[in-house]
Structures are given as C-alpha cells and as structure tokens.
From TrEMBL:
Record Pfam families: Barstar
SUPFAM superfamilies from the UniProt entry: Barstar-related
Organism: Mycobacterium dioxanotrophicus
Protein name stated in the entry: Ribonuclease inhibitor
Family: Belongs to the barstar family.
Barstar (barnase inhibitor) domain mapped to chain residues: 1-83
Highest taxon of source: Bacteria
Length: 92
C-alpha cells in the first residue's frame, strides 16, 4: 500500500499544511491545492494519489500540526480523511 508522509514539523499554518501535502503527494514543489475541498479531491484519487484508493497518509509531529491549525481546522482535516475513507495515521 502506498504511504504518503506529511512532515508535521514543517507546518506552522493551514497554508503550510497544504504545501506539505502537495510535497508528500507530488514531490518537492508539488502543487496540491489550498483548501479542504482540494484535499477531498486528492483523497478520491487521480490527483497524485492512486485511483484504486489503496493508499494512506502518515502525519508526523501531529500535535504540532493540531496546535498550528487550531481546533476547527484540525477537526475539518480529520473529517475530510474520514469522509473519504482514507487512513490518516498520527505519529508523534
């Protein structure tokens, strides 16, 4: 199964989160999008992720990301992954 690693230590804002997701999925400087709708599209497959849905994400330093995003955006992030049935593993 394909695993994408999001470097949570590099996330200081919501914009940074989307930059890091773009890097994880499409390589350094990879464009991803800049909102949760773009994330949902990516998680459905075909925007850098496999269309067969056989992939997962690992978010490192997740407590840092949770603080950087704030409770509302953190909850939205988790909801998007859950809604699209994509595993998001939270790593310290």
């Amino acid at each position: 199964m394909k695993t994408y690693r999001i470097d949570g230590a590099a996330v200081g804002s919501k914009a940074d989160l989307f930059t890091e997701i773009g890097r994880a999925v499409n390589g350094d400087g990879g464009y991803f999008g800049s909102n949760f709708d773009a994330l949902a599209d990516c998680l459905r497959g075909g925007f850098g992720t496999p269309e067969n849905g056989k992939f997962r994400f690992v978010l490192t330093d997740y407590k840092h990301v949770k603080t950087a995003l704030g409770q509302e955006d953190w909850s939205t992030l988790l909801t998007v992954f859950t809604s699209e049935s994509v595993d998001l593993w939270l790593a310290a």
